[in-house]
Each structure stands twice: as structure tokens, then as C-alpha cells.
Amino acid sequence: DAGISDRVTLLGPDYRDVTGHYDTLVSIEMIDAVRHCFHDTYFSQCSELLCSDGTFDLRGDVMPGQLSAPS
């Protein structure tokens, strides 16, 4: 226990089913998991979940579609 369980809520269900209002959202690796065609839906849902003065932290590993092999 890191001593933060009273301040942090981990949300496991589908992001489209999450309800409520939050002062902070941290999105970890979701930008990689949500297909590009659903990005508008994802970001709209995040916006709906945030309090008016809330913050959104987006974390992800974004890489080019093709990586060259080292020569």
C-alpha cells in the first residue's frame, strides 16, 4: 500500500461506461489501445468525466508505424 488508496480510484470498466465527475483523470496507455476512429469518442468521454477545473494527464508510447531495422 503506497498510502494513496484514499485519494485514487482505479477504473477498470470500459471507458464508455464510466460515470461520475473527477478532478483528475490519468490515462495510461489508452491512446494506444483506443483505435484512431474512436479517439473523438474517447476524448469526449474524458471531457464529460472531468470537473470544470479538472486536469487530464495523457500517458502513452507513441511510435511511428514502421521502424527501420538497424544497419
Describe the structure in your own words.
The chain is α+β, with helices and mostly antiparallel strands. The chain is 21% helix and 24% strand. The chain contains two helices and two strands. The chain has helices spanning 30-33, 39-49, and strands spanning 22-28, 50-59. A two-stranded parallel ribbon has the order 1-2. The longest helix has 11 residues, at 39-49. The mean pLDDT is 85.
Q: Choose one word for the global shape.
A: globular
Q: Taking Cα atoms only, what radius of gyration do you get, to the nearest Å?
A: 15 Å
Low-pLDDT runs of 5+ residues are none
Helix/strand order, N-terminal first? EHHE
Alpha-beta content class: alpha+beta
Largest sheet: 2 strands, parallel
What portion of residues is helical?
A: 10-25%
Strand content: 15-25%
**How much is the average pLDDT?**
85
Strand order of the largest sheet: 1-2
Number of strands: 2
The number of helices is 2
Distance between the termini: 46 Å
